[in-house]
Amino acid sequence: MFQNSRTLLSVFSSFPQRATSCSLRSISSQRYRRWYSIHADSASTAKLEIEPDKVSVQKTTTPKELIPSEELVFGRTFTDHMLSLEWTASEGWLPPRITPYQNLSLDPATCVFHYAFTAFEGMKAYKDTSGNIRLFRPEKNMARLNKSAARIALPNFDGESLIKLIGEFCKLEERFIPSSRGYSLYLRPTLIGTQRTLGVGPPGSALLYLIASPVGPYYPTGFKAVSLEATDYAVRAWPGGVGDKKLGANYAPCIVPQMQAASRGFHQNLWLFGEEEYVTEVGTMNLFAAIKNKETGQKELLTAPLDGTILEGVTRDSVLALARQRLEPEGWKVVERKYTMKELADATDEGRMIEVFGAGTAAVVSPVRKISWKGRLVECGLPEGEEAGELTMRMKNWIEGIQYGDEEHEWR
Amino acid sequence: MFQNSRTLLSVFSSFPQRATSCSLRSISSQRYRRWYSIHADSASTAKLEIEPDKVSVQKTTTPKELIPSEELVFGRTFTDHMLSLEWTASEGWLPPRITPYQNLSLDPATCVFHYAFTAFEGMKAYKDTSGNIRLFRPEKNMARLNKSAARIALPNFDGESLIKLIGEFCKLEERFIPSSRGYSLYLRPTLIGTQRTLGVGPPGSALLYLIASPVGPYYPTGFKAVSLEATDYAVRAWPGGVGDKKLGANYAPCIVPQMQAASRGFHQNLWLFGEEEYVTEVGTMNLFAAIKNKETGQKELLTAPLDGTILEGVTRDSVLALARQRLEPEGWKVVERKYTMKELADATDEGRMIEVFGAGTAAVVSPVRKISWKGRLVECGLPEGEEAGELTMRMKNWIEGIQYGDEEHEWR
Questions:
Q1: What tens digit of pLDDT does each residue of A15-26 get?
Q2: Which 3 state secondary structure label does DSSP give B403?
Q3: How far is A78 from B98, CA to CA, in rounded Å?
Q4: pTM for the complete prediction?
Q5: Which residues of A touch B188 (CB under 8 A)?
Q6: Which of A182, A347, B120, B341 could be a cystine partner for B190, CB 3.0 to 4.6 Å?
Q7: Which residue in B has a C-alpha nearest to residue A81's C-alpha?
Q8: Segment among B218-222, B379-383, B401-405 with least mean pLDDT
Q9: Number of CB atoms found within 10 A of residue B273's CB
C-alpha cells in the first residue's frame, strides 16, 4: 500500500489558505441570479494546450493475458497501459505519457483524498466489421469533462488533442478490443487534484489519466428489463448543486440508497425531486418515457430537461436527436420537460403507458419493467414475458449500428 | 508519480456490479418518510473491532527538522509518522500500523479516485502548561466519522480504540506540538474506499489513516474579523443530501463560489438556503448571531438547527453547551432555530445586532465584521477598529482554557 518515495509534484497554490486581509471591491457589480447550476469558468482558461506530438510511449514488458470475452466484468480488468498528463498551475499541461498500467503514488495529504477533487468520463471504443477502431462522439465527452472540471476548480484542456491521444492509446491496446458485436473497450478518463496540502482551495496541480477496461454486452443474453425504486427520502441533485456534472462527489452519496433499493428487490433508484415528485434520472442513466398524451392521444417521448439537476448524457443527446430525426416523421412528438411520477402512474392507470427506458454509455438503452412508488408498482408497458419495448429495441439498433459502423454517420 | 508495484489489496465486493435478476419482495414494508438526511447504518456493523494492542510501530530513520513556529502554515507540513489501518469486507480491521509518513500507492481504478469515497475529521492535540498532551472531545470526532462513513457505505469502527491509537501516535510525535498558547497539532483522520473496480457499489476494502500537521494560532496577531458573502446562486447542501456529514463530496463543489467571493473581497461564503434565504453555515464553520429579540428585547444567541443540512460541529456543540451553562444565568437565551438573512439585516437596521461569529476547529471562534447580501453590506455590530465582540472573546477564552487545561473540564 505504501512506498517511501516523496517525489510528488509540490506546486502549492497561491490561493489564501486562511483568512487574510482582502479589500472590499466592486460590490455594486455583484449580480444575484437564481441559477440552477453555476457557470464556472475554467480554473485556468489560459493553459488549455496539450501537446499530443510530445507523447512518450513506454511499452509494457509483461503483457497481460487476454481474458475470455464471456468472463469480462465491467471495470474489473484493465489493459496493459495507461495514458497520463500532469498539470501544474505554473506550467500548464506537461507532455503526455503512455506507460505500463501502474499504481499512482500520492502523498496522503493529496487533496483528492480529502476534498473529492475528481471528475471523470465514461466512453467506449468499438471495433467495426473491417477491424477499424471507432469512438462514439468523443468531443461530447471532452466538452463535458471540461465543464465538470471547471465546476470544481480543476484545469481545462484542449479536447481535440486529448481525442488524438486517446486514439493513439486505443491503437496500442487494440488486442484488448473484442471484435464481436456488443463488445467494446470502456475508456475512463479521470481528472484528479493532486495538491498535497489540507488548506481548502483550488488545486495547484492535477493529474489527468485514462485507463481502459474491455467489456462485454450489458445484456449478454438479450435485454433484461429492470425494476426501479422511486426515491424521495434521499436526494441526488438540487438547484445550485453539481448534479449535472460528472463528479465523483455525485456517486458515493448514492450507494446506500442503492443498497436499500436492492434489499427490497430493485435494481436502481429513480431519483425524484421536490414535493411535486419530478422524475429526474437514475444516477447511472437518463430516463425516457413513451406515453400517449392525456388530452390529445399524441404519442410522446418524454425526458427531463437539462435544468442543472440532470446529467447531460451523451446517449441521452443521441436518443433525442435520433428520435427527432426518425420518430417525429412517424408521428411521435419528442418532449424535454419536467414531468412527475404521478403523470407516469396516471398513464399506466389510464392505458396510455407505452414504454420506459434508461439511456447511458454502459447499456446504451435499458428497458424498465416497473417502478415502485408509494407502496405500489407502476407497470411500464411491458407485457409479461417480454423484456423490451419496440422503441427501446429500435433505438438500441440505431445507436449500435452507428457505433459499430454498420451505418456511416457523423457521430462515429 | 508512479510505481510499478501492484500489491494493493484486491478484495472485490460481492455487490452486483450490473443489472442482475432480483426478486421483488417486501414492497409493503417500504416506508416513505421525508427525512432531511437518511439514516444510514454502517456498511459493516459486525466488524467494528480495532485492536490497538496489536499496533506495529516502525519509526522513521530520517526525522524531519522542526519548522520555526512562526512559519507554520495550516496543513502544509506534516510530522514524521502516520497511523493507518486497512479494512476488508471479509476480514474487518487489520492490525494498526504506525509507519514513517509516506505516499499511498493505489491502483488508478481505486474507487476513491472515481466516486469520492472519502470521509474525514479535523481535531487537535494541545500541550498544556505541565507538558501533557490533551485531546479535545475526541469521542465526538469518532462518532461523526462513523456517521459520515456509514452514509457512503464505508466501514465503521470502535471509536475508543482509535482514540487510544491516536493518543499513542501523539506521544510519538510530541516534539512537533509547540507548547506555546495557540499552537497545536492538527490531526486529520481520513477514511477512503480502496476497492479497485469501476463498478458503482459499496467498497469491499478501505483505508483509515491519520496524518498530523503542526499549526499556529489562526489569528497570530490577535483576532481579525472576516467578511462573508451571502451566497444563493450556488447551494452547498439540501434536505436528503449529505451536507451534515464530513465528506469530501461537500468540499470540492464549494471552491469556485469561494474563489468568486474572494474576487469580490470576501473571505468566505455564507450559504443561504431556499426562497426564505435561511442562514445555514459557512462551509468551514457554523455561524452564531447574537441579537436582541425584535419583540421582547431579550438577548439571544442564535444558530441554525441540525436539520440535516448543517455540519454537526464539535465547536458548535461546545459553544452551545457553554452558552447555556454560563450565558443563560446572565440573562441570555440560547436558541437553535431556522433564521433568515433578512432577520440579521433587520437586526442591524434596527440597532438590535450585537455580534456574529463563526465556530470551527481551525479558528475556534472567528468574528464576523460584515455580510454582503443583495448588493448591500450588513454590519455585524463591530465598532470600527475593533476586531472581535465581547461574546466572541469570552467564548474563545473559555474553550481555549479547557483545551489547554487551564481549567479542568470533562471535555479535555
A1: 333 322 222 233
A2: helix
A3: 33
A4: 0.90
A5: 109, 114, 198
A6: B120
A7: B108
A8: B218-222
A9: 25
